[in-house]
Amino acid sequence: MSTTSLPGHDVEPDGLPTPPASVFGRVHLGYLVIETQRMTDWRRFGVDAVGMHADELDRDTLRFRMDEHACRFLLERGPAEDVTTIGWQLDDHDTFDRVIDRVRGAGVPTAEGTAEQAARRGVERLLRFPGPKGITQEVFTRPVLDEAPPVMRTSRFVTGEGGMGHVALTSTNPAGLRGYYDTLFDARLSDYIDETISGVILKIRFLRVNERHHSIAVASTQGVRLDPIRTRVQHLNVQVAELDDMVGAYQRIKELGFGVALAVGQHTNDRELSFYAQTPSGFEWEVGWNPLVVDEKTWEPVTHRGISVWGHTPVGQTVIDKLNQFRLGLGSLIREEEVVLPLAGAGIEDYVREVAPSAGRAQPGRPGFTGLG
């Protein structure tokens, strides 16, 4: 293994465990907050299609469970039709204090979550502060656990040390977004994917904060920076324990009439088998199975050509959809993306890396900005 330190990494020359000052490996994606007016559709999507457990707190608040945590997804009534908050679980109070010291030390304001906010998210205490693209970031250490097993159509979701999945964002300032999560969580670059979509070259960066290959994916156009996605989040991912769980969710999504964005396929970088569905709010939801787990002693970032080894065929996108994405992309030229500059700093620029030997096929005909990692 090379002993050269990579941008955004805290890598020791001898490949030994992370230095004590770093919080890498002590951070886990804990929950997401979604604002929507489509509660009935979301309940059908989460329970009947994806196969999660639902608890209705009141007519304006719905929670999904995937494991012993009382809440993994909090849906609150509102107009955004988007993810509004990312909640990060930190291993202990020392890690919590380190992260908050970094935020406050940069002059970024923090706010203690109210007792009601904590109860709705199923945590004992939380702290809130601004994040990229206007997505509030929240950190907590102790989730509320529910002793009653979740009632689900899926046999089991994979959470644990890798957290509950990942979030993918499109960005006009990918260096700033990488800088933000490097400052906050010592995020490490897992790899890149270069993909051509509708003639536009995309570069996708995959950032990890623990053993999961990535908890954050950041996609951007090469050359002129465009953001063709209406929502802050392009897609989110959950991982199921069994192949039958993924296949079952895929069948239920189609049978219930929810849109499929990309059919079943396998990714080039983390080797996950997955498909992408359209949520009631418009962003995509990836259900995946069997991604690799990163070995910190041997892992080296490379660039893959194309997001898929096979499959992930686009489904159902129309000319109108493409025109709407083009309009949104042009609009992003005059909108300044929120990056929280005190934490993003100068950002972390991409560097050229050799193409992986196992790179997948290039897909010049892929017709829309879907399934970005």
Automatic annotation (TrEMBL):
Pfam families: BphC_D1, Glyoxalase. The keyword Transcription does not apply. Keywords: Aromatic hydrocarbons catabolism, Dioxygenase, Iron, Metal-binding, Oxidoreductase. Its cofactor is Fe(2+). It comes from the Bacteria. The keyword S-adenosyl-L-methionine does not apply. Residues 28-142, 163-290 form the VOC domain. PROSITE patterns: EXTRADIOL_DIOXYGENAS (PS00082), VOC (PS51819). Belongs to the extradiol ring-cleavage dioxygenase family. This is VOC family protein. It comes from Actinomycetospora termitidis. The lineage of its organism: Bacteria, Bacillati, Actinomycetota, Actinomycetes, Pseudonocardiales.
